[in-house]
Design a protein that fits this description.
- Strands 9-8-7-6-10 form a five-stranded antiparallel β-sheet. Strands 11, 12, 13 and 14 form a four-stranded antiparallel β-sheet that branches. Strands 1-2-3 form a three-stranded antiparallel β-sheet.
- It folds into four domains: 174 residues; 136 residues, no CATH class; 69 residues, SH3 type barrels (Roll), CATH 2.30.30.60; 85 residues, Alpha-Beta Plaits (2-Layer Sandwich).
- It has 16 helices and 16 strands.
- The chain starts with a helix and ends in a 7-residue tail after the last strand.
- The protein has 561 residues and is an alpha+beta fold.
- The longest helix has 40 residues.
């Protein structure tokens, strides 16, 4: 039954992470293609005296994305406006087409890392008006693709592709060859487009990815079969099942690595490489977060097993809270990393979460107090399930220790639920934690008892206690304590070892009966509560005061009813 529950929980977690992966993948698809769309007017508010460029050339990222968008739409006339070249007309348009092909085939897919600031990234103080778009490999070595900030008079300062870069483009264009993917695939898969995206991209996304993941499952079964056969041979147990080596997050990591390897071999366009790089990164982030969550769950079960061996109650609730908090931190960190990769600044969101967290903390002050009190009780090991406690006027047995409250079954079998914050501030007496029980009766003897009888009683009771194996002989003390109001009080003091309270009552009963027998054997008696009353009576004539009689009545002489 427990195995089935664990299996169901693992399946639910797998469905959750798979759903999250699909959602994030769709988000990454939208983000990847939106990065390559034609930039509109700049979203940031600039000074009124600074003119706005209608083509979005105010930033290095705006220039690159605007150029790629115009080239993708086949508008070479607009694409030529992003070049810092003295060429005009058809020559400029031809250079723009060549640059678009070179960037599409050779430029690394790192468009999201381009600066989105009007002043650029400023990596070099010597040339602050230049930014590196990327580095491509050529027959003559590496070539830096640069954009530079150019003053266009009334149009203001805009970012254009550097003239130094453009001078090398024709030679690089001559080195290009047909991509391997276009030579291997049928023409209709390459030329047919759905929503401006080639058909083979859709097939790779919705058919290729599931197929690769299915292959990782077959690889897992193959490795598990080989490992299981080795274990069965070494342990001489033919019933050992095949272990599961490649967990789903590990299979996702393998899938991301395969995607990156294929990108370096197939030769896709810049748009495709940008999309698949983002998708591989998102899959890797989700897989790493999933692995950390699984490792956190394994650590919880390991620690809980160790704590249960030590009989530490309440630890399960605290560990579950700690696990949920760590899982939340892992998922939140993965989300922040993803947003940072897409260029989203999470500072404002974090500030909002901080203010909201303060508001929630103030609203749930009592709840947090009880939770912290429960954690402190578990950490101090002050309460265990099964303990008999005395909390103020409440005496009972602990049935459960939770994060917010503790349930106590009282002696009259009612259930009392006490908040942990209240328990943490109360004086707690654990009755069941006693190592020995206190045997402390006070034996009252009649005043008619002689000193010899008292000495015999003290000696007899002391000898009786010393002979009992359950009594701590070092703690035995029997003494005539005081001359009481109506009795001679003999103090009996000793510690008794017993399994529980009921066992102690059984031992105490036997000891009290033996003490009574010792008193009877000496001829003495146990005193009844008594008092002496003096009554003064006058005669009717009040003449003869000498006839006054004093009568003394003692309750000790009266027979009990």
């Amino acid at each position: 039954m427990m195995c089935a529950q664990h299996s169901l929980q693992r399946r639910r977690k797998g469905v959750f992470f798979a759903s999250a992966l699909i959602c994030v993948a769709l988000f990454s698809c939208c983000a990847a293609w939106s990065q390559l769309a034609a930039p509109e007017a700049p979203a940031t508010v600039t000074k009124a005296e600074t003119p706005k460029d209608t083509l979005g050339r105010d930033t290095p990222r705006g220039t690159v994305l605007g150029f790629l968008s115009a080239a993708r739409k086949g508008n070479a006339q607009i694409a030529a406006l992003y070049l810092n070249t003295p060429l005009r007309g058809a020559n400029a348009e031809a250079l723009a087409r060549q640059l678009a092909v070179v960037l599409d085939r050779r430029l690394p897919a790192r468009l999201n890392e381009l600066s989105d600031k009007p002043e650029g990234a400023l990596p070099d103080q010597v040339n602050p008006d230049e930014d590196i778009v990327g580095t491509i490999s050529t027959a003559n070595g590496d070539l830096n693709i640069l954009v530079e900030r150019v003053d266009r008079g009334k149009a203001g300062r805009v970012w254009l592709f550097s003239q130094t870069t453009l001078n090398s483009i024709p030679g690089v264009f001559q080195e290009l060859k047909t991509p391997p993917v276009e030579t291997l695939l049928p023409k209709f898969l390459v030329n047919t487009r759905v929503a401006t995206i080639p058909l083979f991209h859709w097939l790779a996304l919705f058919v290729g990815l599931p197929f690769l993941y299915f292959l990782t499952g077959l690889l897992d079964r193959l490795i598990g079969w080989g490992t299981g056969a080795l274990l069965r041979h070494r342990r001489k147990d033919s019933k050992l099942p095949n272990p599961k080596i490649l967990r789903p997050p590990i299979r996702l990591l393998i899938l991301a690595l395969v995607i990156q390897w294929l990108l370096s071999k197939v030769g896709l366009s810049l748009l495709s490489r940008q999309f698949w790089s983002i998708l591989a990164l998102v899959i890797a982030i989700c897989a790493c977060a999933w692995l950390l969550v699984l490792a956190n769950g394994w650590a919880e079960r390991f620690i809980l097993g160790r704590l249960q061996n030590r009989a530490l109650s309440g630890s399960a609730a605290v560990l579950r809270l700690a696990r949920r908090m760590i899982d939340g931190v892992v998922l939140f960190a993965a989300l922040l990393f993803t947003l940072y990769h897409f260029g989203v600044n999470p500072t404002a969101a974090l500030a909002g979460l901080g203010v909201g967290g303060i508001a929630v903390a103030l609203a749930a002050q009592k709840t947090l107090e009880n939770v912290i009190g429960g954690i402190s009780l578990v950490a101090d090991q002050a309460i265990h399930v099964g303990d008999t406690l005395k909390l103020g006027d409440t005496v009972g047995t602990v049935e459960s220790v939770g994060l917010r409250s503790t349930r106590i079954r009282t002696t009259d079998r009612t259930m009392v639920i006490i908040p942990n914050g209240q328990i943490a501030t109360m004086s707690l007496e654990t009755l069941s934690a006693r190592d020995t029980f206190w045997f402390h009766p006070m034996v009252g003897l009649r005043y008619e008892t002689t000193p010899a009888q008292i000495r015999a009683i003290v000696t007899g009771v002391n000898k009786l206690l010393m002979q009992q194996s359950s009594v701590d002989s070092t703690s035995v003390r029997v003494r005539l304590l005081r001359l009481g109001a109506f009795s001679l009080d003999v103090d009996v003091f000793a510690y008794v070892s017993a399994r529980d309270w009921n066992h102690f009552l059984e031992i105490q009963e036997e000891l009290l009966l033996r003490i009574m027998e010792t008193v009877q054997q000496t001829g003495a008696e146990i005193a009844f509560p008594s008092q002496t009353m003096y009554l003064a009576t006058d005669s009717a004539e009040k003449t003869d005061r000498s006839d006054r009689k004093d009568r003394r009545f003692s309750l000790a002489d009266a027979q009990p009813p």
